[in-house]
Specification:
- The chain has about 150 residues and is α/β, with parallel strands linked by helices.
- The chain contains 5 helices and 5 strands; from the N terminus they run H-E-H-E-H-H-E-H-E-E.
- It has 2 domains: about 35 residues; about 120 residues, Periplasmic binding protein-like II (D-Maltodextrin-Binding Protein, domain 2, 3-Layer(aba) Sandwich).
- The chain is about 45% helix and about 15% strand.
Length: about 150
């Protein structure tokens, strides 16, 4: 058996170390891409067929309280500090959850708008969507049921 000196061992393991570092940097991106796609949904009985990104931004950022056809809109949100909420606002308006919270604090102080209704989990959102034609929510695509209609994919 041949003994390897420190320098020789370093040379032999450098490639393995480089591979490990590269993989550890790539894995978070890969796991993010493998997550379920977020979709925006309404009740299947709603007369809304689709929405644009701008229309969803207007509803979720409090600019409009109704859908483009004039019917009332009730935006539903997940609780603060949840990954799904952070992902939604990052994809929708490219803002962090802290910036969204600051935005809503200013609007609430001025009395100009009300933030989306917050529900605790996907199950509560599914239940509200099935009961209320005005409800609009974002959920992972895997939670879409027959009582819902996808109006936008993020």
């Amino acid at each position: 058996m041949v003994k390897l000196g420190c320098v020789q061992l370093l040379r032999k393991t450098r490639g393995l170390f480089f591979w490990f570092v590269c993989m550890s940097l790539c894995l978070p991106t890969a796991s993010y891409a493998m997550r379920a796609q977020l979709v925006v949904v309404v009740n299947k009985e709603s007369n809304i067929q689709s929405l644009t990104k701008k229309e969803i931004v207007d509803i979720y950022m409090g600019r409009y309280q109704s859908f483009p056809n004039g019917s009332p809109a009730l935006p539903i949100d997940f609780p603060a500090q949840t990954e799904i909420k952070s992902d939604f606002y990052a994809k929708l308006v490219n803002l962090s959850e802290n910036k969204i919270q600051s935005y809503w604090s200013r609007l609430l102080f001025s009395g100009r708008a009300q933030p989306p209704k917050i529900l605790d989990n996907s199950q509560q959102i599914v239940e509200l969507l099935s009961e209320n034609n005005a409800a609009i929510a974002y959920i992972p695509e895997q939670y879409v049921t027959e009582e819902m209609k996808i109006v936008y994919q993020l």
